[in-house]
Amino acid sequence: MDLPPETTPQPLLLRQTPSGATVVKPETITIPQPNQSNSTPEAKERVLPLRPPAITIPSYSRWFSWTSIHETEEKLVPEFFDGKSPSRSPGFYKRIRDSIIRKYYEGSGKKITFTDVRRGLIADVGSVRKVFDFLETWGLINYTPPPVTKEKEKKKSVEKKGGNSAEGVAKKDNNIEDPATKTCSGCGAICSQACFSTEKTEIILCARCFVRGNYRAGLTSSDFKRLDIEEAAAAAAAAAASSSGGRASFGQIKSEWSEKETLHLLESVLHYGDDWKKVAEHVGNGRSQLECIGRFIKLPFGEQFMATVGGGRQDLVFSDNEKEEDDDDSNLAAKQMRLNPLADTSNPIMAQVALLSAMVGLDVADAAARAAVSGPTDDLVMDIGSHTNLVVRKEEEKEPITKMEEDVGMEHRRKMLEEAIVEAKVQIKKEHEDLEQSISDIVNVQMKELHEKMDNFEAIELLMEKETSQLRQMQKLFFEDQLSSLQYKHSLETAVEDKIKIPPR
Amino acid sequence: MKSLPPYAFRAPIKFRMPTSKNLVPIRLDIEVDGHRFKDAFTWNPTDPDSEVTIFAKRTVRDLKLPPTFISPITQSIQTQLSEFCSFQGQDMHAREKILPIKLDLCVNSTVVRDQFLWDLGNFDSDPEDFAKIFCDDMNITDPQVGPAIAVSIREQLYEMAIQNVAFAREYRIGKKSRRGFDPIVNSSKASTNALDLSKFFGSKGSAIRKRREWDMYDPIVDILSNEEVVALDARDKNSRPV
């Protein structure tokens, strides 16, 4: 599946028709579905009548397939798969599931009730209820996508007010840290401008999470009600807990930042990074460090991409947000026109990449690029997404790149990549050398062993020789002894003979 | 499938529905404030008690009944379930027993009338399966007929299974002498409806029904018009003691 990386699993709209054809819309994803009237194992299956209109299911349920059971189902409705109950089996589950969904389609997307379904299914009602609830939770039945009209309206207001929208969002970034009573249960940030609550459960979402669809599956956008929060004037009390990220702690500087100054600011940030002293120097014009930082943070980086990129992002606009900073509006609008060479890209993937790298720090984008080289996976995208969210929250440490720095950033990344390659080569060489070294060591050791063995053997040989010579000596001695004794014997014998011969006279 | 002759003794087993799935048929007939609610479905007795309340609330919500129905529905289901559970600890004999099952129901203008033979001792039997095949074969389009058939079959099997249990209890109490087995006594005391199939298999009999019996066993499926349905309802109501 080639999906553009998403930061959160927002419900992109899937259109699927029961008979397998798919409808393509600009912001939807299509997955070819097999024709289910052929895929059921039962012999006499009713063929669906006319082709009903397309049914939408949320993107987090795109794993569904008529012909198989996904592990999500195995995990969330385990009663059918653990074999504990003799009446519940995977085949049984599949039959019920398919019947329910088919029934839903037959009703052309009208909501079906549990009682409807269980009355038409030959099965025990407990099992039917479990499967029904599961399907409903995952939006495979009775799912209504968030209304399209609301999004279109917001889009219009974006275009009308140009930079204001993006700016409003940037300001929202700042205001997230303002002390407010509502904390978003989706992202954990404090909701400032407006929050959305649902009566179904105790969930309060900040505007961003609401728009991103960062809520529990089973809730639709229509379940949420909007509550405006009194905007604590950013100038005043926000000093309290906030870290330096809050604009308020710097005080409101009313003097406008000219384009030139902003340009200088960006350049110097690029060069000096965190060294705000030098940045302030470079900007000159009597701008203190604090002013520079404040101005930098206020710049709406990347938010404008959200207006142009497809998907639900365009509705990050809240007209209430534009109350402040009217003086900078016109400036920014002009600036943005010039500072975003990538914004007009027709390639949605490039736009996404630009957006992400804009919202995220240089390091993270760098790491992402490297990872992209080695082959991205869905998990990775999620990681980046969550990383993105984290970074967005960390106001004070944030150094968003501007559009101008985009290109530089790209080159920088390329350079880094090359360096990485070189480093890798060096390391490989080292490894080789190490390897050779150790091999020669081993060989040396073996040689020593052999030498020692040889010495040993030589010593033994010597000993042996000595012993042999000794033995020979002994042999000789014995031989001499033998000889002498033989001679003596002989002489004795002759003496006796002589004596015997002489006496008879 | 080897089946022992009817008089062969089998050790008693713990009570359960004599079908492959141990599911209980539940029938509801509740009247509150002039509103009448009738329903029938199958229940899995291993489901937790909380499931009953969930089901009752769901049903009331889906059918837009007045909320006063929740409590009587819950109670009725629980009563029937506990009755079933009370049988569960007892023994029943599982031997081949061929009994007639009759279907006579009217669902949403579809009338079904049928009778057939069912082996109570066949624990692999499946009323749900039967109902599904029946609907397919008879080209019944209304999906609510199938479950009604399945429930009806289950109810009858349940009834007969209970009789088995009751009998088993009596038999144990009444047994005076210690006999190894006395199955012949069993089968004679048990319901005499049971058909002895061995009659049909042998040199004299044949498994094929006699021609005059064919009509009796032919299923009838009728689609009634609205007026006929109303008339049928009225007749049923009248026949019931108010």
From TrEMBL, chain A:
State any single GO MF term: DNA binding
Q: Which organism is it from?
A: Zostera marina
Lineage, broadest ranks: Eukaryota, Viridiplantae, Streptophyta, Embryophyta, Tracheophyta
Location of the SWIRM domain = 55-152
Q: Name one Pfam family in it.
A: SWIRM
Q: Bias regions of kind Polar residues — which residues?
A: 30-41
Q: Which SMART domains match?
A: SANT
Low complexity bias locations: 1-18
Please report the name of this protein according to its UniProt entry.
Answer: SWI/SNF complex subunit SWI3B
Q: Name one GO cellular component term.
A: nucleus
Where is the Myb-like domain positioned along the sequence?
254-300
Q: Which Gene3D superfamilies match?
A: Homeodomain-like (1.10.10.60), Winged helix-like DNA-binding domain superfamily/Winged helix DNA-binding domain (1.10.10.10)
Automatic annotation (TrEMBL), chain B:
Keyword annotations: Nucleus, Transcription, Transcription regulation
Q: Which GO terms describe its molecular function?
A: transcription coregulator activity
**Transmembrane portions of the chain:** none
Biological process annotations from GO: chromatin remodeling; regulation of transcription by RNA polymerase II
State the superkingdom: Eukaryota
Q: What is its main location?
A: nucleus
Q: Where does this protein reside within or beyond the cell? A: Nucleus
Under InterPro entries, the record lists: SNF5
Q: Does the keyword Transcription apply?
A: yes
**Do the record's keywords include Nucleotide-binding?**
no
Which Gene Ontology cellular component annotation is one that this UniProt entry carries?
nucleus
Please give the family membership noted in the entry.
Answer: Belongs to the SNF5 family.
Q: What is this protein called?
A: SWI/SNF-related, matrix-associated, actin-dependent regulatorof chromatin subfamily B member 1
Query: Native species of this protein?
Result: Zostera marina
